Amino acid sequence: MDFQDDISRFISDAPPAHYIVKIQLFSLLTKNSIEKYESGEFEAGGYKWKLVLYPSGNMSKNVKDHISLHLALVGASSLHPDREIHVKFRLFLLDQNNDNYLVVQDALGKEKRFHKMKSECGFDQFIPLKDFNDDSKGYLVEDMCVFGAEVFVCKEINKGKGESLVMEKDAITYKHIWGIENVLSKLDSECHVSKPFNAGKYEWVIKLYPKGKGSGVGSGYFSLYLALADPKTLPPTSKIYTQIILRIVDQKQSSHVVGKFNCWYSASNYENGYLRFMLLSTFTGQLVGYVLKDKCLLEAEVTVHGVVDALS
After folding, report:
1. What CATH number should be reported for the domain holding residue 54?
2. Domain co-membership, 11 together with 135
3. Which of 126, 158, 190 is a domain's end point?
4. Environment class of 148 (CB within 10 Å of its CB; exposed 0-12, middle 13-18, buried 19+)
5. Which SUPFAM superfamilies match (predicted)?
6. Are residues 240 and 257 in the same domain?
7. pLDDT tens, 101-131?
8. Strand pairing partners for 296?
9. Rounded CA separation 272/278 (Å)
10. End of a domain among 102, 136, 158?
11. pLDDT band at residue 270, thresholds of 50, 70 and 90?
């Protein structure tokens, strides 16, 4: 038995138990620029697999002067993100001179993990091309060779829950203008809510509390918030990282009152803003233009910078 780079190689008279790939005119793979060949599917341990052969070495790993041979799990992309398949496997190459097999496996007998993000595993230095092409070795005879595989599923593991955070590289800012007519007659209401508007695939509303909200009630200030229009539609594990700008427009002098903040929105934290955004007496003052002809303009700018969802 030969041990090298955590790989063991030994000779076996027994053929591979699960799959054999016979290749005739092997040299034409390279001549026809076939860098990677995937076998048909075979079943072992309740899962479907493929052999993946790199005739001139795995180029993605800069492997040279070797044949690379891998095992691939079919349908790994459909696995749940928390699921892992632990496997021990052996890969085979027929010695046609002696009618036995070169067997390659992990030297320490370690289990290899297959999952949604890792569907392929094997040996990049399966055999040196110099040895493979040596007639006396018997691996390539009359341009024909035989590879094989044995796959033993040891256990299946569910790792638990997980999440995926996706940040937006070129985040788009959405602007919404809310004009409130007859605003003076609405200042006695507890809360005034805009119509829903879209920003970053989500629906939002601006919420104006003329008498204040929470600890801001009775302070003389009104409260201004931006809220998810229907937080129940957001999964419990989801979060939205946003930059929010809220603005009361001065329609006379452009002396706008602006508030800016960053926060995470979620199903449980669906409304964020300012308890004391502006004094109500200043808002309704005659010398400024926040209320003009009994109308005010409120603006919201929403930039979604990142989204957290459950792994799927």
Report:
1. 2.60.210.10
2. yes
3. 158
4. buried
5. TRAF domain-like (SSF49599)
6. yes
7. 999 999 888 999 999 889 999 999 999 999 9
8. 180
9. 16
10. 158
11. very high
Note whether 175 and 138 are same-domain residues. Answer: no
Residue numbers of the domain that contains 198: 164-310
Task: Please say whether the beta carbons of 306 and 170 come within 8 A.
Answer: no
45: β partners: none
Q: Give the pairing type, strands 100-106 and 83-95.
A: antiparallel
Regarding whether 151 and 246 lie in a shared domain, the answer is no
d(CA 98, CA 95): 6
Phi first, then psi, for residue 142 (nearest 5°) are 50, 40
Count Cβ atoms within 10 A of the Cβ of residue 77 and give its class: 0-12 exposed, 13-18 middle, 19 or more buried: exposed
Number of domains in the chain: 2
Task: Tell me what pLDDT residue 310 has.
Answer: 82
Instruction: Give the Cα separation of 89 and 283 in Å (integer).
Output: 74
Residue type, 27: S
Checking 193-197 for CB contacts under 8 A at 24+ apart, the result is 194/298, 196/229, 196/230, 197/300
In the chain, how long is the greatest CA-to-CA distance?
A: 103
The label of the residue with tokens 């940040």 reads 167
- Give the position of tokens 């052999």: 51
Q: Do 173 and 58 share a structural domain?
A: no
The answer to whether the predicted template modeling score (pTM) of the entire model surpasses 0.70 is: no
Residues 116, 179 within the same domain: no
CA angle at 221 for the pair 220 and 222, rounded to the nearest 5°: 125
Are 52 and 76 a contacting pair, CB within 8 Å? no
* Alpha helices per DSSP H over 185-293: 280-283
8 A C-beta contact, residue 145 and residue 92: no
Q: Are residues 173 and 150 in the same domain?
A: no
